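Postdoc handover notes: sequence design on the structure in folder B. Input tokens:
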């Protein structure tokens, strides 16, 4: 029963993170009828200074459903944590990760209630994105611990430990850069592909301020945000393709390597089509979903590295 509970919660966490991206993107203006005018209008509106006594209006069905999913996740996380503490001797596993999961969900719930009245959108989006990723990684690790260990010959895969950790870090950074693009409405800052505004290095301003003056960021700043995400995507693509072939060379990592290769190529193609098609809501949401699947794949690879036969 416990493994099924963990698996269901893990799947629900994935759905919650992806649906949160959908709600965020639709709230930003993707999919609206007068695109891209609505996108620019929302960008200006979201830059308005937050007021401590007035919370932002998030009454749309997307946000209501997201709150319900979050509440269900909290209940399931408490059940997982309670079982982990009660059966810790039988399972011979520390209940630390389930406890951290409950603490994280509680923090995100409190943050979600208070943040909209005090913090700018850019900070709120990144905090929720980081929290969602951490929650998904924790649940994936908890689920993997319940499986029978799959021993891997240390002579084949020892050097992959460092490379797999770096790959996971690279994916996390790239996802956060994508959230930075979304939170600052920088999706349209670079037109064309593969060049940005017809140049490899367009005019950019890497300075950034979180003061909510109510003014849109300059074009050079938006371009810098978008360009960093594009550059990160290219680096991530090259590194993960190399890492996937290294993983496929190890017998018991072959499936993970193939999955990683398929996901990273599909993600790059999907991102390119989103650029060429002016960011349709469905494509942008799928881009977030594949990113989460890639994250889970890297977490799985890193978990397998812990089972190296000595």
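Designed sequence:
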């Amino acid at each position: 029963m416990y493994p099924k509970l963990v698996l269901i919660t893990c799947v629900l966490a994935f759905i919650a993170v992806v649906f949160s991206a959908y709600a965020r993107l639709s709230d930003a203006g993707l999919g609206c009828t007068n695109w891209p005018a609505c996108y620019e209008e929302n960008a200006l509106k979201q830059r308005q200074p937050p007021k401590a006594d007035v919370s932002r209006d998030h009454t749309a069905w997307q946000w209501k459903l997201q709150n319900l999913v979050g509440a269900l996740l909290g209940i399931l996380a408490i059940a997982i944590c309670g079982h982990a503490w009660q059966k810790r001797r039988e399972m011979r596993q520390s209940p630390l990760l389930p406890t951290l999961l409950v603490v994280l969900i509680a923090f995100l719930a409190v943050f979600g209630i208070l943040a909209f009245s005090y913090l700018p959108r850019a900070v709120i989006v990144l905090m929720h994105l980081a929290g969602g990723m951490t929650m998904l990684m924790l649940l994936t690790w908890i689920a993997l611990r319940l499986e029978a260990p799959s021993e891997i010959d240390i002579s084949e895969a020892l050097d992959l430990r460092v490379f797999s950790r770096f790959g996971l870090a690279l994916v996390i950074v790239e996802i956060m850069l994508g959230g930075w693009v979304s939170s600052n409405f920088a999706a349209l800052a670079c037109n064309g592909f593969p060049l940005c505004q017809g140049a490899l290095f367009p005019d950019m301003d890497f300075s950034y301020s979180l003061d909510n003056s109510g003014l849109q960021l300059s074009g050079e700043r938006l371009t810098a945000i978008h360009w960093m995400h594009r550059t990160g995507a290219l680096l991530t693509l090259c590194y993960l393709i190399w890492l996937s072939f290294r993983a496929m060379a190890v017998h018991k990592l072959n499936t993970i390597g193939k999955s990683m290769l398929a996901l990273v190529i599909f993600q790059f193609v999907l991102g390119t089509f989103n650029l060429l098609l002016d960011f349709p809501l469905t494509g942008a949401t799928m881009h977030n979903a594949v990113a989460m699947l890639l994250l889970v794949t890297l977490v799985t690879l890193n978990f397998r590295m812990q089972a190296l036969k000595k």
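Context for whoever picks this up: The chain has one domain: 2-309. Don't rerun without checking with the PI first.
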